[in-house]
Design brief:
Blueprint lengths: L9 H4 L8 H8 L6 H16 L1 H4 L2 H26 L7 H16 L6 H25 L4 H19 L6 E2 L9 H4 L1 E2 L2 E2 H19 L1 H11 L1 H6 L4 H24 L4 E2 L8 H11 L10 H20 L6 H18 L8 H5 L2 H10 L2
Antiparallel strand pairs: 1-4, 2-3
Helix pairs in contact: 3-15, 5-10, 5-13, 5-14, 5-15, 6-7, 6-8, 6-13, 7-8, 7-13, 10-11, 11-13, 14-15, 14-16, 15-16
């Protein structure tokens, strides 16, 4: 009687280096091209640990770095989820800023209790994502144009509800709201724990559930997925709703760090989020957008920026750092490669879509 062998699944076949055999698959997984962020982190850590050990190796610095990146983690996940379905969300800065300002208005002038305000802000974030998804799917407007338009609308809404771009003070009515950002467990603040929980949920849904597999199918080949019976329109809308919910959560948590609402509070989150998602797609999953690659990429970039700043660089260095990283990551993703796993990345790049259409008979 012949021994039975396990039949490889589609998930097994899409892992980096599957066709190479056991030992070589492991070597492929740990190759630089598949885990470059980890190796880059080791290099960065060694360099700064040698040059500025008194400032770089302090535990307080690492805890503060995690806390500072918590909202960035949530912003990156909010961008990642629609990206899996082939949609670029350029409205993330407006979504976070609008949710933060809405939090200040609800707590301050309107005097809502936190128990009502917090879920309401998250729910409204989901509604913003729903409207964006309807515009993309039913009006058939490209996601880049649609989300840019939505972002502009949200900026206008921020100006309106803040009374012409003024700061809205809420701490007098809800002085304890700041405890959301200050509460910690084993030295790690609540926003970091929330970001970790959201990341685990997003990873499970995207990587371990039928919904996630269908979303990847829509991102890889929307026409093929539609012919296979997948509700592509519903998944695109759902991905943007999920991203909006996460953005609403990020804005509500972000506002707890301030005593008043700032109309410009969300503008700095778009570039790092996009950079982390594109750079993270080159990590662990061989060209697929994925949660842990995104989280690691964002953290490594933050460590590099922090180390440079500790050496005396000006604060604006993060714009140069993130901008260069985004160009490199998109360039890697757009570079011609074989294999269907890279189609999901190329599909969200408009110039790649035009090239693909020009090759069709």
């Amino acid at each position: 009687m012949k021994p039975t062998t396990a039949v490889p699944t589609i998930e097994d076949k899409t892992k980096p280096g599957y066709a190479l055999g056991g030992g070589r698959r492991a070597a492929s997984f740990f190759a630089f091209g598949n885990m470059s962020s980890i190796y880059l982190f080791v290099v960065i850590f060694i360099v700064f640990a040698i040059t500025i050990p008194d400032r770089f190796l302090r535990p307080q610095m690492w805890l503060a770095l995690l806390d500072n990146q918590a909202i960035g983690f949530l912003a990156a996940i909010a961008v990642l989820i629609p990206m899996v379905a082939g949609q670029i969300n350029l409205a993330i800065a407006g979504q976070i800023g609008f949710s933060a300002m809405l939090t200040a208005v609800l707590l301050g002038p309107l005097g809502l209790p936190v128990a009502l305000q917090f879920p309401l802000v998250i729910l409204i974030g989901g509604v913003v994502g729903l409207v964006t998804g309807l515009i993309i799917t039913y009006a058939r407007i490209d996601s880049i144009i649609a989300t840019l338009g939505v972002n502009s609308l949200l900026v206008g809404m921020i100006q309106w509800i803040s009374g012409g771009g003024l700061r809205v003070r809420y701490a007098d009515n809800q002085p304890d709201y700041k405890l959301l950002s200050q509460w910690d467990f084993v030295g790690i603040t609540l926003p970091v724990w929330v970001a970790l929980v959201v990341a685990v949920i997003a990873w499970y849904v995207l990587e371990r559930s039928p919904i996630g597999r269908r979303m990847y199918a829509v991102g890889f080949n929307p026409d093929g997925a539609k012919l296979s019976g997948v509700n592509t329109r519903g998944l695109i809308i759902g991905s943007l709703v999920a991203g909006g919910l996460v953005a609403g959560l990020a804005g509500a948590l972000l506002q707890s760090r301030y005593v008043d609402g700032d109309p410009t509070i969300g503008g700095s989150y778009l570039l790092p989020a996009l950079t982390a998602v594109f750079l993270g797609s080159t990590q662990f999953r061989g060209g697929r957008f994925n949660v842990w690659g995104t989280m690691v990429a964002l953290f490594v970039l933050a460590v590099g920026i922090k180390g440079i700043q500790l050496m005396g660089a000006e604060p604006y260095v993060d714009n140069f750092f993130n901008g260069a990283a985004l160009l490199i990551a998109v360039g890697i993703a757009a570079f011609p490669r074989t294999g269907r796993r890279w189609e999901g990345i190329r599909r969200v790049l408009p110039w790649s879509r035009r090239k693909a259409m020009s090759r069709q008979p």
